[in-house]
Please model this.
Amino acid sequence: MAELTLKERSVKGHRGPRLLPLDVPAEGLEKLLPRERLRTELPGLPEISEPAAVRHFVNLSVLNHHIDKAIYPLGSCTMKYNPKLNDEMAQLPGLAAIHPFQPEELSQGALAVIAELHEWLKAIMGMPAITTQPAAGAQCELTALLMTRAWHAERGDAREEVIVPDSAHGTNPSTANQVGYRAVTIPSGPDGCVDLAALKTAVSGKTAALMLTNPNTLGIFERQVGEIARIVHEAGALLYLDGANLNALVGLASPGAMGFDFAHINLHKTFSTPHGGGGPGGGVLCARAELEPYLPAPVLEHSGDRWRWSYDRPRSIGRVHSYYGNFGMLVRALCYVKTLGASGLAEVSREAVLNANYLKARLREAYAPSHEGYCMHEFVLSASRQKPRGVRALDIAKRILDFGMHAPTTYFPLIVDEALMIEPTETETKAGLDAFAEALLTIDRESKEDPERVKRAPTETPVRRLDEARAARNLTLTWRDLEAEGDGG
Amino acid sequence: MLERIGARSVDELWGAIPPEFRVQGSLPVDAPLAEYEIARRFAAWAESNADAQHYACFLGAGVYDHFIPAALRALTSRSEYATAYTPYQPEVAQGTLQTIFEYQSMICELTGMEVANASMYDGATACAEAAHLARGATGRKIVLVSQGVHPHYREVVRTYAAAGSFEVGEIPLERGATSIPALERALAPEVAAVLWAQPNFEGIVEDGAALTKAAHAAGAYSVASADPVTLAVLKPPGHEGADIVVGEGQPLGVPMGYGGPLVGFFSIRKSDVRRLPGRLAGVTVDLEGRRGYVLTLQTREQHIRRERATSNICTNQGLMALANAIHMALLGAQGMRDVAVQSAEKAHYLARRAAQVPGVSLLHGDAPYVREFVLRLPGPASDFLRAAEKRRILAGVPLERFDRARSRDLLVAATEKRTREEMDRYVDTLAEWAKRHATKPVEEAAWRS
Model:
């Protein structure tokens, strides 16, 4: 039986926590506001008691898979454990119940948190300029491409194209388009890395930037990144690092040294802030010194013995967020790096790479790796050997759910047939990795002995496979839609 | 593990990274700290900030100190919600998906629209994305933005417009509300949308019906940026014909958090659903015919459509949208109305009493307001703020922040949490401070006018 909706649970007259009685003389809304500006009836929200509401949301919550339950090996998403201390610090009233427009003199603690995080992240990235105003990775991309536009415009050098490898995340071409560039896709070479010949052909005086993920989405380090940077810079273009895969590099390799002009960080991936079922993220954009004037305003500055926001930024691209970005995520990220320290940060990357290579070694006999050799923090398998048995990557992903584990990223990157993209992260134990490997090996055996078992999966989850085509055909997006069609189920 | 991998050392796994790109030695950052030491340092930072537990907070301007139920905090802290990823495997994400569906439903109930997405980054980017949608839907290039829209939202709209997809014009205010004659003069055939705020940044309740009518007469979209708390008592823009209703969801159960994480809501008519940015949950059935939820119309999104996506947004503000949903569920229609009514009553109590202080006036006279208003002071607002801080009052947002000429204007908000004692203390402080300024004849002339 599916969970009822709040609307279906609504009982007339029921309600949750109440307010104190009004302690000023009541005038009545009709006296305070013109009648024609007032709503004539209450909004159609549910009437529900606090215990009933709590049960509703708790009963729904347990239908979710989550990182505190078991492995969540989504490639390029870095689903690592989110330390509890981080949340506790972010909820301190002095960091949570503070207003973005309270005077800077009364916000010095908040500004110091941001400033110290900036110092850590600049050191990690090997880049001197930083903003934490973007809300997520895709907004970092947008910010950087707007900065690229401004940088070229100042040189009277209008550019039209942004190059992305065919293994790139969808946000890269999408952002390029949103910022008014044409996205030009270049093929990867047989080794899974950028094909330098293809890059040289694609790069021209029209090129504004190349957006590169390193390690790329195959989990392979782009070892030619120095040469790539040279080609891009010679054409007068800028090189952007999509930091989705930064968990392989922190403390061990420096994006600044690789020649990147921009690099973004997803705090919700690499720096352990919770994903929240889809957000919030935490976007950090680092840049080389020459690009600093274009950063979104305001920029944090130190003057005298105080931190202050500087709004006097004539070359800035402007603002990308209502205030200063996802501050609560910055608190968590700072807490995370301070817990690990310099040694711990490097250890994280080493463990992440070790875990990925171990899993790859355990699975390679049953599943075809996209590429041979060591991987970085993630790797891609193909279900090409299972496909002739009638079992596809999607079926394997669904069957994993029956084992109480989460599926890998599927059908991405697009350049691998039947892709299963696996990123275990450093926070899985060897026992956890072994259990996951055993599950995948069992599924491979099933694909030979009882392929139907895999294809009808999942059977042990709160619901079975869902009809996505029906959802798109018969749009039921609110309670009202649901009521209009009698139920929906 | 290394044996299984067939490597001699972990360093061997790193062979692909050329030495010149490696970090030499260790990073120039601190050594690791234990939990209790970290807690000590964060406590020190926290204590050096003025927070709403120790100060009476009359700040608003898009972020408000409303009541957050304890049950909400308990529920949003649950691992099952906080540590889950985007629900791409719906069979093990029904909790997240159903709560998104309920959030979408409740946002539509508030705004009077038909479809809401699963959230945007914040109110500002929701405005920018709405402008982008209207530009695509109408094929027109200009977006007119009322100066009653939050100045920062206007800045973000301009930043997004710099990508070249649309141009921005501004419509001035007249007695605190968007000037309809100025709007009508600016409405040209190339105008894609009119973006306005309800209530607007100066606290004034706009004539939404008139704004929408003017926009529609010129074939433009009417886009409202609405406050979700006051929507419980104000006529929803959707009922007045608006085409897109967006806004900042922070007042619905999200801590002020120094301005983030926030959450933007985004609601439209069904006819525009294929232009919607961001994620969307819908109802379907599973193999056994049971009701279930999935992310739907994903072909609009970047991970499928790539450069042809409706927006580049991927990660949104899911956990904050969940907080909004839980908040609306716990308070219900009556509780939401109570919050809005009490905020309005308190704002009017404070405004009336403050305006009785010699030298102080309500800038926009008798223009209707709900929870927030602008006081014109007999001296610099920044000076009054310092006097109030000494009495543990955060007295408002000085509009000098956004316009240097407005040094005597203070934007003041009152929520249901402000007590009569706090407001009386506010007025006493204001009266004492104003008396000092009233002795200056120049100022006296100013406040008589």
The mean pLDDT of chain A is 96. The first helix of chain A runs from residue 6 to 9. The longest strand of chain A covers residues 207-213. Chain A has 16 helices and 13 strands.
